[in-house]
Amino acid sequence: MTRRLGGPTRAASVLGIVGVLGLLTAMAGCTWLFPDPVPTGDVAASSLSRDSDPSVSGDDLTTLVAGNSAFAFDLLHELTADAENLFYSPFSVSAALAMLYAGAEVDTEQQMADALHFDLGHDALHAGFNRLDLDLNARGTIELPYEGEGFELNVVNAAWGQRGYSFLGDYLDVLAVNYGAGLRLLEFADDPEGSRETINDWVGEQTNDRIVDLLPPGSIGPLTRLVLTNAVYFNAPWLKTFDPAQTTPGAFHLLDGSTATVPMMRQQSTFAYANWDGGKAVELPYNGNTLSMVVLVPDRGSFDAFESELDAARFEGIVSSFDDRWVHLQLPAFEAACDLSLVEPLTALGMTDAFDATADFSGIDGTHELFVSDVLHKAWVSVDETGTEAAAATAVIVVGGGVSTPATLTIDRPFLFVIRDIPTGTILFVGRVLDPA
Fold this sequence. Notes:
26% helix, 33% strand, 10 helices, Antithrombin, Chain I, domain 2, alpha+beta
C-alpha cells in the first residue's frame, strides 16, 4: 500500500459525510493541542485549504466508483440476513470510512482496503473522493433545461475532536484538502452528552431533520477522542411525475405468498427498460436527467436467488442492457427508515482489526491506542408521485434511444432499487422493499 502520511506531529481533528467515527483513547502519552482553555465551537484546522479542483484521471475515477459499487453490494448481502425492508447509503459509509482509512497502518490498512475495495493508492483515493464529492454537490447548482423544479443533493463532511488531544498534522491535511473537514473542538471528556447533542444537531441540519439522533445516548463517552461525520441529503422530483389522481390501492405480493394493499402509482411513458431471463428493470430519471432510480424486479419465486447473486457486475450488466420502451408502469408509493450498526457486516467482510485493540490507526495520532467501537448508520427515504426525498448519515465510534414495443411493468412484488449518479455511475443509495405497507 502506498503511504503518504508521516512527518511532524500537529494537532487537529476530522469530520466526514453520512458517517461519524468516534475515536476514543486514554489521554496518557498525548500532548495538548491547546494549553489554554478554548471555547466550545472553536476549530483547529489544517493550514491547507480544500482542493476545489483535484486532478483525477478518468481511469482512477472509474476504479474508485467500481470499488465503491462492489462494496455497496457486498454490504447488501451482509445486511439482508437480519432485515426486511432495508435502505442505506453505501457512498456515505465508504466516504466516512475513507477518512478513517487515511490514518490506518499495516494490517488494519490492508483489511480496510480489501473490505471497502479501496483499490487506489492513498493520494489517488482521497483525491478521487474529493472529486466525487465536488461533482455530486454540483448537480444541484446546474440550471436545468427541464420543466419544474431542480433537485437538491448535498454531501458534507466534518470532524469533531477532543479539545487538547494531539493529532498528526499530515492526517489533518488529508481531511482538509480532500474532505473539507476541519476539526471542531468539543468536550468529550467533560461533557460527552452535550458533545453528542452538538453532533446530532449538525447531522439534523445537514439532512433537513430527516436523520435525528444518529448518535444514541451513551455512544459518546469520556474516552472519545475523534468523531468523523458524513451526511447526505437528496430531494428530487421525477423527470416524469406521476399523476396523484391515478394512484389507487393495489395488491403487493409478499414473499410468504400473502398480499398487502398499498397505494400504487401509475403512468404510461417512455423509460429505459430491461427484460432479462429472471426479471425486469426500469430506470426512472430525476429532473435534470443526471440521477435516477433503477428498480430491479425479479420474477416471482426468484427474489432470494437473484438478490444473493447480485453484485456490481450483474447490476452494470442490467443497466447496460436498457432500451427505451413505452412502459405501462405501476410503482408503490412507500417510505422507509433504517437504523443500523455496521460492525458485524464490516467484520464479516474482513475489516477485523479495526474493532479491537489490535487496530493500528497510528497515522491519526502517532499512537496505537485508537480503535473503532461502533459504526452507526441511519437512512430514510420517501417515494411518492412527485419524486424522492432521501437522507443518510454514518457514525464510526472509535474508543481509545428509440421507442419500440410497449412493455408493462407492475411492481407488485418485492424489489430492489438503486439511486445512482448517471455521469459517474456512483451508487448513492440502495434499497430493498419486501412490504411497502
